[in-house]
Design a protein that fits this description.
Blueprint lengths: L4 H17 L4 H20 L15 H13 L5 H21 L4 H8 L16 H8 L7 H16 L3 H5 L6 E2 L5 E5 L5 E5 L2 H13 L23 H18 L10 H14 L4 H8 L4 H23 L9 H4 L3 H8 L3
Antiparallel strand pairs: 1-2, 2-3
Helix pairs in contact: 1-4, 2-3, 2-4, 3-4, 4-5, 6-10, 7-9, 7-11, 11-13, 12-13
Length: 340
């Protein structure tokens, strides 16, 4: 059966554009794929349009809005999940704008669909005491213990994503001053992050114990599991859970019950911010494409400082919400600022 223009371009989008031109991770591609599988299901079940007959002209503002409404009402998706699906829909539109610009007006309407506001969750992270308690549970004199220690050390001192951690190869480690690791980030964007001298010392010992200091092994992954295979995201989080359970048995207040590699990334960012490091440097270290993403840590830090001030002054002053937190009319707030 001859493919329609929708099928042709969707196929190229997933097999060529996302992996090759955009450099999207397998996780992103899989997420987008699931979104379009659901969209096709919606178009068949609700709109009555068979997948094999679907055309680009059927990919409309109305169909995307209907799909999003169906996700929420019929499938019970949260606003966060709904926004992820919308991102996939818009991603395809950005591709079509250049490859098949025939319906540009409709594309602009789809791109204009707003994200739904979601509740901002408190960032969960470890304080310095928590990190120390966590690593104290590791026996660095055993082979696996040293591996786990170095793994958590790199997570904490560099703030890398778990996907970046498991993709580090031996050749990416530079143990001549200045000590660095080459990180392969999102979109195949490489960046170098610095290593502390103490971290370099433990990594050097780990490389020696694993015989990774032989040139023939430079292409191997730095961290391997018990089957001598590259670590997975689940494997890293299992390691963290194992030691967090031991640490929580000693002091549950210092360790989150659901500690993950991503929370270690939050920990790094908050440590840097509270130490006075500029947001621009934190952005570069974490590999954020925009400082806007990094600003979430600054907002969290501001809330913590406010709570500390309130706690210190509660004997003489009642708690008072900040005007900029509650007043949505910025112009009026600015006008009245001097009068206050």
């Amino acid at each position: 059966m001859k493919s329609t223009d929708f099928g042709t371009f969707l196929g190229k989008y997933f097999t060529r554009y996302l992996p090759n031109e955009r450099g999207s991770s397998p996780q992103t591609i899989d997420s987008y794929r699931n979104a379009f599988l659901l969209y096709l299901e919606y178009m068949e079940a609700i709109e009555g349009k068979k997948t094999e007959k679907l055309k680009i002209k059927d990919y409309t503002w109305e169909s995307v809005l209907g799909f999003l409404h169906w996700l929420e009402k019929e499938r019970g998706n949260s606003p966060v999940t709904r926004n992820y699906r919308l991102a996939a829909m818009k991603g395809f539109v950005h591709y079509l704008k250049y490859e098949f610009p025939d319906y540009m007006e409709e594309y602009q309407r789809i791109l204009g669909i707003p994200l739904k506001k979601t509740e901002q969750k408190e960032i969960s992270y470890l304080k310095t005491e928590g990190v120390k308690l966590l690593v104290d549970q590791i026996d660095i004199n055993s082979a696996n213990g040293l591996r786990d220690y170095v793994m958590i050390l790199i997570l904490y001192t560099t703030g890398v994503r778990v996907s970046e951690l498991i993709n580090i190869k031996v050749k990416d480690i530079s143990l001549t001053e200045p000590y660095t690791i080459k990180i392969h980030g999102k979109g195949n964007k490489g960046r170098y992050v610095p290593l502390l001298e103490t971290s370099a010392r433990h990594i050097k010992r780990y490389l020696s114990n694993m015989h990774y200091d032989a040139e023939a092994r430079y292409e191997e992954y730095l961290f391997k599991n018990h089957m001598d295979e590259q670590f997975t995201r689940q494997g890293v989080n299992y390691i963290l859970k194992k030691y967090s359970l031991k640490a929580r048995a000693i002091n549950p207040e210092l360790i989150p019950s659901d500690l993950t590699a991503h929370k270690m990334r939050h920990t790094t960012a908050m440590e840097l911010l509270t130490s006075g490091v500029d947001l621009m440097y934190i952005r570069d270290l974490l590999g954020h494409s925009s400082v806007t993403t990094t600003e979430v840590y600054a907002r969290t830090d501001a809330k913590l400082k406010r709570k500390a001030i309130e706690a210190a002054s509660k004997e003489i002053l009642p708690p008072e919400p900040a005007s900029w937190d509650t007043d949505t009319n910025l112009k009026e707030w600015l006008k009245s600022f001097n009068r206050r």
